[in-house]
Amino acid sequence: MSENCFHCGQDIEKERISFDEKIFCCNGCKSVYEILNINDLGNFYELNKRSGIRPNDDNISQFDYLDTKEIFDKVTDFSEGNTSLVTFKIPVIHCSSCIWLLESLHTLNPNINYSQVNFTRKNVQISFNHNELKLSELAKFLSNLGYKPVINLETAEKKEEFLDKTLVIKLAIAGFAFGNGMFFSYPEYAGELMGTTDFWMDKYKPLFRFLMFLLATPVVFYSASDYFKSAWFGLKNKIVNIDVPIVLGILMLYGRSIYETLTNYGAGYFDTLCGLLFFMLLGKLFQKRTYSALSYDRDYKSFYPIAVTKVDFNGKQDNILLSDLKIGDRIMVRNQEIIPVDAVLINGEGNIDNSFITGESASIPKKAGDKIFAGGKQIGSALELEVIKTVNQSYLTQLWNKEAFKKYETGLDNLTNEISKYFTFIILGITLIAGIYWGRIDFEKMFQVVAAILIIACPCALALSAPFTFGHVMRILGRNKFYVKDTLTIEKISKIDTLVFDKTGTITHNKKSNINFDGTEISDFDLKNIKSLLKNSNHPLSKSLYEFVEVNDEYFPIEHFKEIPGKGYEAEVRGNSYKIGSAKLVGQESKNLETAVYISRNDEFLGKYIFKNEYRDDLKSLFKTLYEYKIHILSGDNSSEEIKLKSMIPNVAGMAFNQSPEDKLNYIKHLQDQHQKVAMFGDGLNDAGALKQSNVGIAVADDTNSFTPSSDVIMSGKKLVDFVKYLRFCKDAMKIVKITFAISFMYNIIGLGFAVTGHMSPLFAAILMPISSISVVAFTSVVTWWRSTKYFKISN
């Protein structure tokens, strides 16, 4: 029977520590328990049975950089005298006991003045004495309690994810005017309700009406200013947008109210107008908060799946996630790889192509000691770099969000805009007809009817359908290792009918291969030179061969490195010229249909390494699930695997071998000329042209630096066999959007029916409009989540 740790509640698997008649899973949990009890905070365990968070075993010396003045100033919210304020993001906050403990920090450390938790944002703001408690010590103190703060450029920028202060001020003014306007309207309503007129109330009616005018005026011209700006901008650009009827309704109610007040005809609609704008701004605030939350969740910095080759001082290579890279680490960047972080060149001949950053194709030579910015691409032999900025701080972060590579409008956005435009004209027509009709029957009621029509008919819910659905879809896909660049990609994936797979490194494993050598025995001297050269290439076969060649890890400088696209590369090592690549490159003929890497030294053929590829697991079942799609296979290798591939993919529509990067691009273009919607799967670098040409470029990443502006999607190689799930989920997203369109139209049709017949007041219309938006957002959120559970295991 398994036991649970008294502090964190996790199952005890290895270590079992008894203390104070309780069982703990590690010394960290025991230490936290001791700290809490010494400080009389034992109530922590009474709040929640699984209250605790297991302290992280990671090295926390990484927080030392927080004491640098520049970083301290950037991270802290306020610092003066002895007191500093800092807001830490702590993702593991999950229950009431976490909140209670984090707000009791002042009892655990006398140098902490107070702490306040924002559970929604997973933040804690702490006031502390920075002269007695360093910022790094505070971060370590939280980590030791199990609440390790996340600190990166994103959190240091202190972006307000949910709050638009200007909008809140406008909402507050509208709310103040609405509340007081209802109070000042009491004499008008009291007389009607009681059927009698009080002398004093009747005497001061003009004053109350004037006060209501004073309250409503800033609401109309300040609180509603965004609607006026939007409508004016649209009309100036010959576009009738959804804010035009809203502005007309506001002006009509405001003008009519002024007329009634000046002529003493009635009280007007100042209170209704303030209420109308209050509820509209409330809906707008809700919309902006939700947009910000979605944008934050899918930010590149929080989940970008790049890995990088880390090198220790003995030359040992280890592939790690780029997010785990620290300042001072040394990394290797091979030929044609994009430099992922800002760094200093330590070893190698740098030849940096900054076309991705500057748009100019000219390459810049770099020597040891030179700084190299993220986003540049190395052309030539491998470089050893020392990291000076993490990925969160480097220029690469901005590249993913670069305007040139982002497409904001989807086809559905265009459809929404078109619908909104015609919808507005239709509403204005209905308003005109209803106005004429009611003007003849009840002139006073006409103003209420017209205002109600103009307000209730705002297609805000329609405009929210696509972005909110796609926002949730992007977030769910990202959590499942499928990183979509923009919302347009989701729509394009749903329309794909043709799938093109590169063979090597995409449907085969990068490392798993059966390798045999055919040739004369190669000396250790040559093997060390060859391994030094293999180290410089990012081609899957070179990587496999690098792992296969067993010699001492001793590397030598590479000179005159030159790559021949589609054939291989050559360079000089210790005075000898080597060529590694295809048979043609080394002057041989490939007699058998086989995948092989040929090697020569000083134009003397040494032998060849023959590869038998190992395909990804469950690949056959993947292609079975993709029966409704046309499938094509491209490869830079020869056709030795053709029979095996045909047995694996019975419905294959086409195969092409010995393909150069340009051949692959032309193959994609040919399919598109036949009106096929093509998704291309490649390794992100060798297939950059084909990825860019395809309708959807999908870079399949295992442990390589796969960042490329050519790809629309980056997915984990382990998830390739589940690709059909991503396809179907994107199709479901389109269906959900169409359903929300229908719901939006239903709201408008029912609302218009009540408004045109005079059964809806402008105030009720103003309340119903944000409710319709909220219900659409709630519907798309719940349904998107529900559909995702069919395909993925969803975790919070």
Automatic annotation (TrEMBL):
Protein keywords: Cell membrane, Ion transport, Magnesium, Membrane, Metal-binding, Phosphoprotein, Translocase, Transmembrane, Transmembrane helix, Transport
Main localisation: membrane
Name of the protein described by the UniProt record: ATPase
Transmembrane stretches, start-end: 167-187, 207-228, 240-259, 265-286, 422-440, 446-470, 736-757, 763-786
Domain (Putative metal-binding) ranges: 4-75
GO CC terms of this entry: plasma membrane
Similarity comment text for this entry: Belongs to the cation transport ATPase (P-type) (TC 3.A.3) family. Type IB subfamily.
Pfam families attached to this UniProt entry: ATPase-cat_bd, E1-E2_ATPase, Hydrolase
GO molecular function, one term: P-type divalent copper transporter activity
Single GO biological process annotation from the record: copper ion homeostasis
Membrane-topology annotation of the record: Multi-pass membrane protein
Protein location: Cell membrane
Domain P-type ATPase A span(s) in chain numbering: 310-400
Species whose genome carries this gene: Kaistella jeonii
Claim: Ion transport is one of the keywords in the record: yes
InterPro entries, A to Z: ATPase-cat-bd, ATPase_P-typ_cyto_dom_N, ATPase_P-typ_P_site, ATPase_P-typ_TM_dom_sf, ATPase_P-typ_transduc_dom_A_sf, ATPase_P-type_domA, HAD-like_sf, HAD_sf
